[in-house]
Amino acid sequence: MVSALATLLVALVFAPAAHAAGEAGTSGLNFLKIAAGPRAEAMGGAHVSVADDAYAAYWNPGGLVQLRHPELAAAHSQQMDGVSEQFVSYVYPFAGGRTVSASFTRLAVSPFDAYDNNGARTGSVSSDDTAAGMAAAQAFSLPGEAAPVIGLGAGAQFVRERLGSDSASTVVGDVGLWSGGWESWVGSWAKGARLGFAVRHLGPRVRFVSEQTRLPTTIAAGASVDKRVWGDPMTFAVEAARTNNESAVVSLGGEYWVHRLIGLRLGLHRGSQEGVGFRFGLGMRIRVVQVDYAFSNVGALGNSHQVGMTFKFGVAPSAAGRSVAEHIQSARDLLGQDRHYDAIQEAAEALSEDPGNQEAISLLREIKVDLQRSQDKGDQDLIKRTEKKLDAEERKSRQKEEPNEPR
Fold first, then answer.
1. What is the pTM of this model?
2. H or E element in which residue 104 lies
3. What is the rounded CA–CA span in Å between residue 154 and residue 323?
4. H helices of 22-130, where?
């Protein structure tokens, strides 16, 4: 009975047919507010400026421009007994700084007891919420060499919520702005800094039976910085967000990769009545596969567990049509973020356009040294690939420099 009542409580929280739906300052379709992705959840939801993985479209569509390779992500969130959410997203970067994303979300509540106005049990009822959408982003570079990059993005989702035989549906929109690479303009102290701003879940009121309720429209702004601590990458992020007339929420989050293999995450979420407090999580990278876990406390609703996997695959379509200098600068930026796999691809693209380019070869050496310094067994295959590429390019360079001998 306790489990049934708890499930009913969750159904009321997430369904717009709840009695509070029509009250001032409240919203319906609140399942849209559930954090997408265990990495962001473990960092307290401070992700509007990070937004650099397959979950980016949820947090900030503008951040999609950071992805260099196609990515597929799938996550499962267990809110409490009988309440779970599944999220799937695919991101594909095109040439010219354009990136598109498609996603699907479903939250399901196991059947629970239903009662009439007199308190008599009338049977059981089930509830589920779904959202399917697409997003796109475009990158813009400000004037000048090594200038900051700005990403503008927007997305739309078809959303449907069902409680028993009643349902409601609508279309919601998201817009986002992301920017990074400001060190060339404001100084080296800004290296690794990123900024983000997003408006999530825009749209008209939705009618559920005879009730009308607002969408959980959220305005979020934040900043993050990527640094190296003991030779390994660390990210610290802060975000402030507000949903309609609710109290503002402040989130803090940190992520540290031990030898670039194990990710440790900690977050703080303050200001809302749901999920106040600390969150934490872990991540593990195995070549192009990443596995993540997050734990959080969802206030009176108990604990939440979220697990997910991300797959990075294919070539980098976004590399096409760019100059050698752009490839080299991009490789340096990626190396600064400890994204070695992507940095190697960019350097390789520069060498395919200009075989024997000494700056690109020197950059490959830097990547190799950085990988060796990490002493990470998971990077051994990447080190061998880098060495193989270096040997081939250095041979080409020597042949290019040697004068033609007379026959």
1. 0.77
2. strand 98-115
3. 27
4. 38-42, 56-59
Q: In this predicted model, what pLDDT tens digit does every residue of 348-382 receive, in sequence order?
A: 777 777 777 888 888 888 887 777 766 554 456 66
| Residues 6+ away with beta carbon under 8 Å from 186 | none
- Whether 182 and 142 have beta carbons less than 8 Å apart is answered as no
- CA distance linking residue 58 with residue 173, whole number of Å: 10
Q: Sketch out the chain's domains with CATH numbers.
A: 2-312 (2.40.160.40), 322-401 (no CATH)
d(CA 155, CA 173): 6
Query: For position 91, what pLDDT does the model report?
Result: 96
Tokens of 405: 């001998």
User: Using N-to-C axis directions, what is the helix angle for 324-336 and 340-353, rounded to 10°?
Assistant: 170
Choose among 206, 182, 283: nearest CA to 21.
206
What is the pLDDT, as a whole number, of residue 6? 42
Question: What is the CA 191 to chain-centroid distance, rounded?
Answer: 21
Q: Is 41 left (phi over 0), alpha (psi -120 to 50) or beta?
A: alpha
**Amino acid present at 164:** G
Q: What is the amino acid identity at position 131?
A: A
Whose structure tokens read 């399901």?
A: 108
Q: In the numeric block, which tokens belong to residue 13?
A: 């929280």
* Residue in 129, 101, 47 with CA at minimum distance from that of residue 294: 47
